[in-house]
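Sat 14:20. Reprocessing the chain from the morning session after the first attempt stalled halfway. Input below, unchanged.
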Amino acid sequence: MKKIYFFLPNLNQGGAEKVITILANGLSRTQFKVTLVLFEKKGHFLEEMKADVEIIELKTDRIRTSIFKIISLLRKEQPDIAFMGWGEIAAFISPWILFFKKTKFIARETNVVSEHVQRKEIRFFYRFYNHFHRIIAQSDDMKKDLVENWKIQSNKITKINNPVDVKFIQSQMMVKETLFEEGWKHVVAIGNLSARKGFDLLLNVFSHLKEEKIQLHILGDGVDKESLSAQKAALNLDHVHFLGIQHNPYPYLAQADLFVLSSRYEGFPNVLLEAGVCGTYALANHCPGGIDEIIEHGVNGEMASIENAEEFAIKIKELVHSGFDQKQIQNSIQSRFSKEIIIKQYESILNEL
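Finished this time. Tokens:
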């Protein structure tokens, strides 16, 4: 049985945290003993973690101060596999990998690095990335970026798409109450309120829909909350609503007439998978990060450029009044990205090392 240690800052709501939760819970217990190492033992997904997953808390809130604690822990425990769940953690640990002879190191990137990583001190560490025994890229876009822009050896990169927990979402998405106002069409967007999620672009789009009976509901929180609220006020967008973080977003997705992904770039957007499981058609900005690997045009969604606000608005107006086959949308996602399929891919890689 292989000992695998997953490393994350915490288990707050986020794509990386969700994927690691699914993996930690789902990996074969006859093949792997799973330990989760957190900087801080906190976050929404803690309550979803299985009881047999050991959790070690480093008691630090910064990646830099965690590195020597991680190194000390790895020297003491000598797990078979150290799995870095965040790109920044992987970057800082990469120079130290050569000092460990028994442990195999895996990095899982969370975004297209050239788009996401801007700080010079972090970009510096990517010169050591070839020390990793395996790097997981979630999409073809991510793999291409690592090879072409960061000189990572192609044979060290394995593309594995993100998993989605279909049964869990289906158990959570049905509620008795109606969440939205009747007589309107409703569009839902979900994500961290930061520049890369493109909500400022989406507000510009909705400035072209003031005369339509279409409401936009944005779920999430983040550093751009105040600036986005100010933009909403400046554009007089009374039909746009910020709903904050919803620990169960699935009923909102299930009751929406359309899901919109407005991101400037992505890694491999879990929320696009989740919208599909809820049977909701999607309109996504055509940006880097595996969108074109998820969207089957006319089946579960389509893509357009959100930079052209007026045309994107016309597309929203068209789609909210269209009827789509919910079962077809759900099957499009489940048949390719269900956790059972993706976990087997991870188990194959972990057993190869």
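The first strand starts at residue 2 and ends at 8.
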